[in-house]
Design brief:
The complex is a heterodimer of chains A (474) and B (95).
Chain A lengths: L3 H9 L5 H19 L2 E4 L1 H16 L11 E5 L26 H8 L3 E6 L33 H8 L5 E6 L5 H7 L2 E4 L19 E6 L2 H11 L30 E5 L9 H16 L3 E5 L7 H16 L18 H12 L2 H14 L5 H21 L5 E5 L15 H6 L5 H6 L3 E8 L5 E8 L4 H13 L2
Parallel strand pairs in A: 2-3, 2-4, 7-8, 7-9
Antiparallel strand pairs in A: 1-3, 4-6, 5-6, 5-10, 9-11, 10-11
Chain B lengths: L3 H10 L6 H18 L35 H6 L17
The chains are: A alpha/beta (474), B mainly alpha (95).
Chain lengths: 474, 95
C-alpha cells in the first residue's frame, strides 16, 4: 500500500526518479482503471512535466516540499488551473478551470503531483457515484458493488492503490461513506477549517473539503497542509491550526470518555457491522477509555432536515448554470428564457433536477416557513444534541454506514432509500463538527467495515490520536 | 399531496422544462420525499432559534478595498458558449 513516506523514501534515496514513478502510476491507471473508472480526466502531460521539474530540483540540491513527488487525485468539483472540471455533469462537460482552488495552491507549493480528476456523483449529489454523467465508478474491492459517494472516485483511487492521497468533499457523508465502502481513511474537518475557495458549491453551509488516505500519519500530514484561514473564503475560521503530526507523538486514550449514542445502533444496522463496532468499543474500554451511553434524541430528524437545507442551498447555488457564462448551451432555442430552461433540462441529470426542485419548493412562497425555516430550527436542535453530548464525552463512536457497499443498481431507482444510506453521517454536517471514518475490519464477504469517530468542534487532532491507537492495534 | 400543477410551477421557478413522463416521475418521487419529511412536524419548534454556525459570532469579515489584478479575463471568456471576443452573447432579451 502506498503511503507518503514509502514514496518519498524511494525518491529521496534515489531508488526511483519522480518521472519514472509517475510514468508507472499512469501505466497502472491506464490498465486497471478501465474497469474501475475512478478518474474522469487524467493530467498526464502536466504531471510528467512537473515530475521532470522536481527531478531537476532534487539533483540541484534545492529544498523539497512535504509532499515532494507524491501523486494525488482530486475530486472533479475542485478547480485545478487549466484542467477540465466537470462536476461529473454534462453541463460542465468542457469547462476548464481558470484558477486554482486554495487547497490546490497549497498542494502545489509542497511539490505534490496532481494525477487527475476523480469521478463523483453529479454535483456531489448522491451516495454511490452512479449519477455521474461519465459512467459509474466500481468498488475496487468488488466490481459488482458501488464505491459509495459522492466522492466515490477519490475513495476508489486510494483503495485501488493508484495513489496514496486523494481529496474529496463531504456535504452529508460524501467522504466518510465512500471511505468506509472502500476500506480507507476519510476525514471531514470542522466547517471552516479547510478553505472552500475553488470548490464548486453544492450546499455552502455543509460542504467541506477533506482527504482520503491509507494511514493516519498521512491524514495528519495532508491535514497540516490543507488546513488554515483563507481570506478568499468568507466562512473560513481564523484560529491557530495545531501541528497534527506533533500531536500524534503521544498516543493516549486512558480516561478519554467515549459516547455511544443509542440512536445509531437501532434497527436497520447490519449485524456484522454492529458486532465489529462493539468489539472495538470493548477494546478501547479494556485499554482505559471510559464508555458512556448517550442520547442524540433528534437523530431521526437529520435526514429530513438535511434534504431541505442541502436542496435549498443547492437550488440557489446551481442557478448560475444557465448556459450564458460557461458550460453547455442548447443551441436550438428561440429566446433567452428558453436558453436557460432547455440548457438546464438537457445539462442536468435527474438527481440534480430532483434536488433543485425540492429546494425550490422548500424556499417558495407559502412553503418557506413550513419547510426551510422549520428545518433550520430542527438543525439547531440537532446541533444542540451534539453540544450537550460533548459536555460529557470526548468522542462519539458510531458505524459510518448502516450497510457495507451495496450492489450497483440496488438503490438508484429509489431516491429515498439512497438518501437513508447517509443516515449516520448527515447530522455531523448539520452540526458542522469533524468526523473520520476508519476501516475496522471486514464482513463475511471480505468487504470493509467503517467506524465513525466524531469529535467536538476543532478536535481533529484528538480524533487522529484515537484513530492512530486503533490503527496501531489493528 | 403534490399535484402535477405543483410540479409544473416548481419546475418553472427552477428554470427546468420537463416532459410529461418526467413530471409524473418527479411527482411520485417528490411526494414520497415530502411525506418522509413531514416527520419534522412531530417536533414543536415555536421557541427554537434558527441554526447558527459555531465559530462565527455574527461578525462581518472585511478586507481592505484594494484593486487586485486577476488577469484571467481571456481564460474566463474561453469557457463561454458564445462571445464576440469581448462580451458574452445571448439571445435577444426584448423582442
Amino acid at each position: 500500500m502506498k503511503t507518503i513516506d514509502s514514496i518519498k523514501n524511494l525518491i529521496l534515496n534515489k531508488k526511483i526518479t519522480v518521472e519514472n514513478l509517475i510514468k508507472k502510476i499512469f501505466e497502472d491507471i491506464e490498465t486497471r482503471d478501465k474497469e474501475i473508472n475512478s478518474f474522469i480526466t487524467l493530467s498526464k502531460t502536466k504531471a510528467l512535466e512537473k515530475a521532470a521539474f522536481l527531478d531537476k530540483k532534487l539533483s540541484n540540491g534545492e529544498p523539497v516540499g512535504e509532499l515532494f513527488g507524491i501523486p494525488i487525485a482530486i475530486k472533479d468539483n475542485i478547480n485545478v488551473k487549466n484542467e477540465r472540471m466537470t462536476c461529473a455533469s454534462k453541463i460542465l462537460e468542457n469547462f476548464r478551470s481558470p484558477y486554482n482552488a486554495t487547497v490546490i495552491e497549497k498542494l502545489e507549493k509542497e511539490d505534490a503531483i496532481i494525477i487527475g480528476k476523480t469521478n463523483m456523483d453529479e454535483f456531489a449529489m448522491g451516495s454511490s457515484t452512479e449519477t455521474s454523467y461519465f459512467g459509474i465508478t466500481k468498488n475496487p474491492l468488488d466490481l459488482s458493488r458501488v464505491p459509495g459517494g459522492s466522492s466515490g472516485g477519490s475513495a476508489a483511487s486510494v483503495s485501488a492503490d493508484f495513489v496514496p492521497l486523494a481529496l474529496g468533499s463531504d456535504t452529508g457523508g460524501s467522504i466518510r461513506q465512500p471511505a468506509s465502502f472502500c476500506g480507507v481513511y476519510g476525514l471531514k474537518p470542522t466547517y471552516g477549517t479547510v478553505s472552500r475557495y475553488g470548490l464548486v458549491a453544492f450546499a455552502s453551509s455543509l460542504d467541506q473539503i477533506g482527504p482520503f488516505t491509507n494511514s493516519i500519519d498521512d491524514m495528519a500530514k495532508i491535514l497540516n497542509i490543507i488546513s488554515g484561514y483563507d481570506e478568499k473564503d468568507s466562512t473560513s475560521i481564523n484560529i491557530k491550526v495545531p501541528n497534527f503530526i506533533e500531536e500524534l507523538k503521544n498516543i493516549d486514550i486512558k480516561n478519554k470518555t467515549i459516547g455511544i449514542p443509542d440512536e445509531f445502533f437501532k434497527e436497520g444496522l447490519d449485524n456484522e457491522i454492529k458486532n465489529i463496532i462493539f468489539e472495538k468499543i470493548e477494546f478501547l474500554e479494556k485499554n482505559g477509555a471510559i464508555i458512556k451511553k448517550i442520547s442524540l434524541p433528534h437523530t431521526e430528524y437529520s435526514v429530513s432536515t438535511y434534504y431541505i437545507v442541502a436542496s435549498s442551498e443547492a437550488s440557489a447555488n446551481l442557478a448560475r448554470f444557465d448556459g450564458v457564462k460557461y458550460g453547455f448551451r442548447e443551441k436550438n432555442i428561440k429566446n433567452l428564457l428558453e436558453e436557460y430552461t432547455k440548457t438546464r433540462s438537457i445539462g442536468f441529470g435527474n438527481e440534480v433536477k430532483r434536488r433543485i426542485m425540492l429546494g425550490t419548493f422548500s424556499l417558495s412562497s407559502g412553503y418557506y416557513d413550513a419547510y426551510y425555516k422549520k428545518a433550520q430550527k430542527v438543525r439547531n436542535l440537532i446541533k444542540q444534541d451534539f453540544v450537550n453530548a460533548f459536555k460529557e464525552v470526548d468522542f462519539i463512536i458510531t458505524p459510518t454506514s448502516p450497510s457495507i457497499a451495496f450492489k450497483i443498481g440496488e438503490k438508484i431507482s429509489d431516491p429515498l432509500s439512497m438518501y437513508l444510506s447517509d443516515i449516520y453521517t448527515i447530522s455531523v454536517n448539520l452540526a458542522g463538527i469533524p468526523a473520520i471514518s476508519i476501516p475496522v475490519g471486514k464482513n463475511s464477504n471480505s468487504m470493509p467495515i467503517g467506524m465513525q469517530i466524531i469529535g467536538n468542534y476543532f478536535k481533529e487532532a484528538e480524533i487522529l490520536n484515537i484513530s492512530k491507537f486503533l490503527e496501531f492495534n489493528k | 399531496m403534490l399535484t402535477i400543477k405543483d410540479v409544473e410551477k416548481v419546475a418553472s421557478l427552477a428554470r427546468l422544462k420537463l416532459t410529461d413522463k418526467e413530471k409524473e416521475m418527479f411527482l411520485t418521487q417528490l411526494d414520497n420525499i415530502l411525506s418522509y419529511i413531514e416527520k419534522l412536524n412531530e417536533i414543536k419548534t415555536d421557541d427554537v432559534l434558527e441554526f447558527k454556525m459555531e465559530g462565527f459570532d455574527n461578525q462581518n469579515f472585511m478586507r481592505p478595498d484594494e484593486v487586485k489584478n486577476y488577469n484571467f479575463h481571456e481564460d474566463l471568456m474561453k469557457n463561454a458558449p458564445s462571445t464576440d471576443g469581448k462580451f458574452l452573447k445571448v439571445k435577444k432579451v426584448i423582442e
